[in-house]
Protein 1
Amino acid sequence: MTANPDAPDVYDASFEQQIGVFIDQHRAMIAASLDGLSEAEARRRLVSSKTTLLGLVKHATFVERVWFEEARTGRSRAELGLQPGPDESFDLSDADTSASVLDVFARACERSRRAVDGVGGDTVWSGNRRGPLSVRWILLHVLREHAQHCGHADILREQVLMERSRSR
């Protein structure tokens, strides 16, 4: 199956296949938000929150791991080596680079794909703080999260590129 939601082979695919293609498209858009940016540009804070382009990719990794590891296995965030909450997942260390954060994100996405491979939407995972949730709900939630953050990334990237063009 193609990774393009608008390709004809996706039209008649199962829900699980379709949602996987849509999520993968958003994963790719999140990763692409760092394309061609310097480390300083990727870290630039343009809003009052902790949100930066590099921080968004790091947060997207948190989203993947919360929903496809914590919710599935019931292991705590501490056991999984995750930040305690979403706000902290935007925090960048000095060691975080575009390459390192993208690598961790890519590996998390691959584990997420494997976690739902062959799993039906009616399957229930009980490891999230909300209690038992269907995999269908989890997939839709991840799509919603990634779509929202793609919008944030589009705006931040536009601002970064505008700043770049002004400084030349």
Note: The first strand starts at residue 124 and ends at 125.
Protein 2
Amino acid sequence: MPRRRPAQQPCQLCERQVALTFHHLIPRKLHRRPRFYKRFNRNELNTGVWLCSPCHSGIHQLYDELTLGQQFSSLEALRGDEAIARHVRWVAKQRAGS
């Protein structure tokens, strides 16, 4: 399911104006698990945020998909985590294109 990139929007975590990727708040790998498809409707499962590549890959390096689906299924939860916030602060200092 292709996602259209928002025009001229910053990364929703570090707020840099760079190319963005779509991050599913509940990883697609988990959509077929009863724990998730019974609790969330199809639109909720496909909800996500637009992130730059360093923020996106950093999130996946910090946490496995099950943890992301259970504990970080909202933008507020991502922003509220200290490990993610530390990574985002580092990314925000990087030059675009680095």
Note: Residues 7 and 19 are 10 Å apart (CA to CA).
Protein 3
Amino acid sequence: MYLSGAILPGSPSIAVISIVWFSRGAFSTRSWTPILLARMVGWKVTGAAVHAPCAENINYSDLGANTFTVGTTGEINYLTPGNMNIGAGSWHRGCLIAPVVPA
């Protein structure tokens, strides 16, 4: 997984995070059950975040539905709106934008 980002100063500050994740093995997801990928250290989300759909190389019928999300304590998750089987070697790219304050 490759995470990059920046905290833009302000009141509140804004976290802008880019995510590129390559899944090594196949896995299954459960509908609306987040899969924890990483955690922002030292920051807490204070309001609604922008969760853009992932660009992925998965089954055509599942494209455009999955997102990366961020929780109030800074956890970065992968979220699908249905049960899915994701193949080995899949890539997932997306971004998050969220208002944050120091934790």
Note: The CA atoms of residues 68 and 78 lie 5 Å apart.
